[in-house]
């Protein structure tokens, strides 16, 4: 629910998003404009949005089960666990962005292998276009380029 700005206090909320790579740690200062407490209130929400797009890209390249997805994300430098990734996979499956196929596991119960649906392929394309646009804007801001 978004509240009317005239009836609520507006404030700026600052957070830091940390992404670890094999060569560096990138710390991004995220500034969010919130109205009456509505808006992103921690970097967990930022990371989850980014993770959705990254998960779609990883699964596009290779069908995989949930825990393998966690391992791949961690190899790229995210510090995530099953408690973060599994709800995202479930939400994407419920939105018909991912589909599952149960396959036998060498140990334990069958594993759910995830793959992209046609809607998932469109969602990935949308994410990539949005990411490129946002990345360009943030880079211009960081470089002080106002496009004058």
Task: Provide a descriptive summary of the structure in words.
- The chain is an alpha+beta fold and 148 residues long.
- It folds into two domains: 1-41, no CATH class; 42-142, Winged helix-like DNA-binding domain superfamily/Winged helix DNA-binding domain (Arc Repressor Mutant, subunit A, Orthogonal Bundle), CATH 1.10.10.
- The protein is 47% helix and 24% strand.
- The chain contains four helices and five strands.
- Strand 1 (10-20) and strand 2 form a beta hairpin.
- The model is unreliable at 1-42 (pLDDT under 50).
Topology:
Elements (H helix, E strand, L loop, with lengths): L9 E11 L4 E11 L7 H19 L2 E2 H11 L5 H13 L3 E6 L7 E6 L1 H26 L5
Antiparallel strand pairs: 1-2, 3-5, 4-5
Helix pairs in contact: 1-3, 1-4, 2-3
């Amino acid at each position: 629910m978004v509240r009317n700005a005239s009836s609520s206090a507006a404030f700026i909320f600052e957070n830091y998003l940390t992404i670890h790579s094999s060569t560096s740690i990138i710390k991004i200062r995220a500034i969010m404009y919130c109205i009456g407490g509505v808006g992103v209130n921690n970097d967990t929400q930022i990371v989850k949005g980014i993770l959705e797009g990254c998960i779609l890209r990883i699964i596009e390249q290779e069908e995989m089960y949930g825990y393998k997805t966690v391992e791949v994300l961690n190899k790229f430098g995210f510090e995530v666990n099953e408690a973060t990734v599994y709800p995202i996979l479930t939400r994407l499956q419920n939105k018909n962005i991912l589909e599952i196929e149960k396959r036998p596991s060498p140990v334990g119960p069958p594993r759910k292998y995830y793959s992209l649906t046609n809607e998932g392929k469109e969602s990935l394309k949308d994410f990539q276009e949005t990411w490129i646009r946002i990345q360009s804007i943030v880079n211009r801001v960081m470089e002080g380029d106002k496009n004058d």
